[in-house]
Design a protein that fits this description.
The protein is built from 7 helices and no strands. The chain is mainly alpha-helical. α1 runs parallel beside α3, α4 crosses α6 and α6 runs antiparallel to α7. It starts with a helix and ends with a helix.
Length: 169
């Protein structure tokens, strides 16, 4: 059990550092900003208690907010994603998947399931984050385009990272 905790602590540190030191400096035409750090929430075990999901989501977003001086926007967005995660998993999964104690990873549940899961979660995160950032609907389509393009790049990075870290048989 302790090795699992250390694995998740290491994952947290790597994703936060990667986000604040590298990915936050990627801006393509002011539209595309990848946010890979939400992969931490996406890959937590299915049986993670809801209170722990919310706490970890808030703390993860708060870490990003501290480094980027964004006044709680990431904390709100990752808490939202942690909140909707159990509903999304129940929506796209059968009972068999949830009872097998599998982890939400591409290597365990396949590309199709993981792609649908990450698409819903990443799009929800980005829409929430970008609309709370502008806090107006006056530039609705501009913000929507930004959310869609950033989601596409984030999903590509998530899929690549899943294939890179998959256990080789």
């Amino acid at each position: 059990m302790n090795s699992g905790i250390f694995k998740y602590i290491g994952s947290w540190l790597i994703l936060v550092l990667l986000q604040v030191l590298l990915l936050n400096h990627i801006q393509i035409s002011g539209y595309v900003n990848p946010y890979l750090y939400i992969l931490f929430i996406l890959t937590l075990p299915f049986n993670t208690p809801n209170y722990l999901l919310l706490l970890l989501g808030f703390l993860l977003g708060l870490n990003i907010d501290i480094f980027t001086n964004t006044l709680g926007m990431h904390a709100a967005a990752t808490t939202f994603v942690a909140f909707i995660r159990p509903s999304v998993i129940n929506l796209i999964s059968s009972r068999d998947v949830l009872e097998l104690n599998q982890l939400p990873r591409i290597s365990e549940l396949g590309f199709s399931w993981f792609f649908r899961y990450s698409l819903i979660m990443v799009l929800s995160h980005h829409l929430f984050l970008f609309y709370i950032e502008v806090f107006t609907f006056s530039g609705f389509f501009h913000t929507l385009l930004r959310s869609l393009l950033s989601s596409a790049l984030t999903i590509v990075l998530i899929l690549v990272s899943q294939y890179m870290t998959a256990k080789q048989n």
